[in-house]
Amino acid sequence: MAIEDFGGKVLDRPIELVSADHLNKPDIGIGLARKWYDEDVHAIFDIGITSVAIGVQNLAKEKNKVAVFISSSSSDLTGKYCGPNGIHWHHNNFSQAFGVVKAAIDAGGKDFFFMTVDYAFGHNIQRDTTAMIEANGGKVLGATPHPFDRTDYSSDLLKAQSSRAKVIALATTSVHVPSIVKQADEFGIRPAQIVAPLSMTLHDVKSIGLQSAQGLMETTSYYWDQNDETRTFAKRFQERFKKMPNMNHAAAYGAVMHYLKAVQASGTGDGNIVMAKMKETPINDFMTKNGRIRPDGQVMRDQYLLQVKTPVESKSEWDLYKVLATVPAEVAFQKADPAACSYAK
Amino acid sequence: MTMTISATNPARPLGKALFALSLSAAVLIGGSSWGQTKETFKIGMLNECRALSRTFPAPGP
Fold first, then answer.
1. What is the ipTM of this complex?
2. Would you list the domain boundaries of chain B?
3. Predicted confidence (pLDDT) per residue in B38-58, tens digit
4. Which of chain A's residues have a Cβ under 8 Å away from the Cβ of B40?
5. Which of A6, A83, A280, B26 shows its CA 20 to 30 Å from the CA of A148?
């Protein structure tokens, strides 16, 4: 959609989109990215899991290309794994967790137990969220790691239940959240304990169903039913793809559009030059107002704390959330850390 | 690079000659932009496709 809306051409050349599934395997993902960059692909978007994203970050620097992380969440992409040619587009694991953790603590949940997916992203979000919990007067009672391909969470849920922590924080991906929430209900974990997914999307809620998902919190960069602009984009997307967009769909559109405008304005696809143009240009589109890209690559933009509606509150198929609060960018993201990232100023 | 040669019929003698001439000409000018499809500007979308396209039901039990 972004390429079409841009006119299908940049620098008087037809824009060609190549796409591939890395199967969540770093060797496949990084191999594909290397091949693409060597075949004159100028920029790679989305990228997904952190272990692939870290590799692509290094490749973009090595080959003077651009990498835009959309569904990748690790804050290390603008920290110890930052790069001069990488942009973390709309959120990170800190911003995703912030509103949810704050809301849980405000509701009296001071004790936390983590269910953590056992790879870079899970460890990263647990680390950042632990710091957040402790800074807000909370305490972490324990954690249980699970492999990425786990589908039966019985043993993890029993550990979480027996910890007696008020909040069970899911430091795991949206691939796992629907199953965990449903299985938590089978163990009768709620309402005695709060289940708090730290990374969840609109389609996870749709998958879980409102009966189980009601009351869950999520911090997001986009919800389709926020205002006329977000609804207009959502309507176009739905007509084309037969479903509403989540934050990653919307962010991908915005990121590609911002990149193409920078290429056109720069008159080149050279990675360093285009990056400089992207960073000096404010981001303004249907979901981002006055966004800016920090020197470490983090896009600074507001986030929104959402709560899943009850079945009674929901008036239509995709009427899934209430918007509870806006989290200003300066609060939603950590400060840039020059000690971790030499590009941060 | 894509080249298109037309207006000749290789099945007839004159056509064969013209076809050969055209082919030679095409090879000779192959390094120029004449007759070539314009180079594209490539961008990539790399992900676990399920993550962006997944809706419901969710994978796994």
1. 0.89
2. 1-61
3. 699 999 999 876 544 443 333
4. 13-16
5. A83
Element (H, E) at A248: helix A247-266
Res A85: pLDDT: 97
Q: How many CB atoms lie within 10 A of CB A151?
A: 11
Q: How much is the pLDDT for A173?
A: 87
- In Å, how far is B31's CA from the nearest CA of chain A? 18
Burial bucket for residue A296 (CB in 10 Å: 0-12, 13-18, 19+): buried
Q: What is the pLDDT of residue A234?
A: 98
**Residue percentage of chain A with pLDDT more than 70:** 100
Distance from CA of B61 to the nearest CA of A (A): 6
Nearest-by-CA chain B residue for A256: B43
Matching residue, tokens 């084309």: A240
User: Domains in chain A, please, with CATH?
Assistant: 2-91+226-300 (3.40.50.2300), 95-220+305-332 (3.40.50.2300)
Candidate from A82-96, A119-133, B40-54 with smallest mean pLDDT: B40-54
- Which residues of chain B have a CB within 8 Å of the CB of A252? 45, 52
Nearest Cα to Cα of residue A49 among A35, A70, A34: A70
pTM, two decimal places? 0.85
Partners of A56 on chain B (C-beta within 8 Å) are: 46
pLDDT class for B60, splitting at 50, 70, 90?
very low
- Cβ distance of A21 and B48 shorter than 8 Å: yes
Between CA A193 and CA B55 the distance in angstroms is 28
Of the candidates A45, A175, A178, the beta carbon closest to that of B43 is on A45
Which residues on B lie below 8 Å from A28 (Cβ)?
A: none
